[in-house]
Amino acid sequence: MSSGFHFHSLHFVVIIAGTNAIPVSIGKNPMLGQHYQGDILNPLKFKSNVLSQQWPHKTMVYKIGFGFSTEEQRLIFDAMNEIQSKTCIKFRQASYFWDRDYVIYTKVATGCSAHVGKTGGQQFINLEPGCFNGGHTITMHETIHALGIGHEHNRPDRDNFVIIYYDRIMPEHRYAFEKDDSNTFGVPYDYSSIMHYRKDAFAIRPWETTIAPKTMGTVMGESTHLSNGDTEKLKRMYRC
Ligand SMILES: [Zn+2]
């Protein structure tokens, strides 16, 4: 990597340390950081599943920040490969010379988080070491955010499928359970989405359920691979 690349990373420290880097404890699901809807970096009410925030040419441009171990890098590429193998979406390493819009995978900030959709300029997927516990799942979750997809349990029709127990959720995280007006692309609600919270997400008492499926016995938020719904949504968004 060139020295210019390191400049970008240092720049990142300044920006993020001042605004977004709130240390989060790594529990069972470290993707639940202290950001908008848990792990989303876009500062204000953002729009997910918006076609205007797609990556052009069905291609996400990326850089890998410094400091990742060989195994961590392998997991990042595993995540990209799974998306690439199931959809028409491609990943291309940014050129230092001409790419100005790209995602940089970095382990500089705490937590696991991402900007949703293409923001323009440099944007981040933050992956601290704990984000690799359990393989490439969290990396893939954050990468799908960067491709423009929001959380499954925030979609506008979610009340038909899940019950939210707000009184059991840590007050500072209740906003992460609000519905958004995201485009579902006509894909049915998918409990097995990799973009779905677990049943105990942000619980005050960790043994309590904060989000429950209306269909008894359904497992949510424990997928380790792209679900059929995730795949279909990405394919429809990117017109595969
Ligand atoms: Zn997320």
Automatic annotation (TrEMBL):
This is Peptidase M12A domain-containing protein. InterPro entries: Astacin-like_dom, Peptidase_M12A, Peptidase_Metallo. PROSITE patterns: ASTACIN (PS51864). Keywords: Hydrolase, Metal-binding, Metalloprotease, Protease, Signal, Zinc. One of its GO terms (biological process) is proteolysis. Residues 1-21 form the signal peptide. Pfam families: Astacin. Residues 42-240 form the Peptidase M12A domain. One of its GO terms (molecular function) is zinc ion binding. The active site is at E142. Its cofactor is Zn(2+). Zn(2+) binds at H141, H145, H151. Binds 1 zinc ion per subunit.
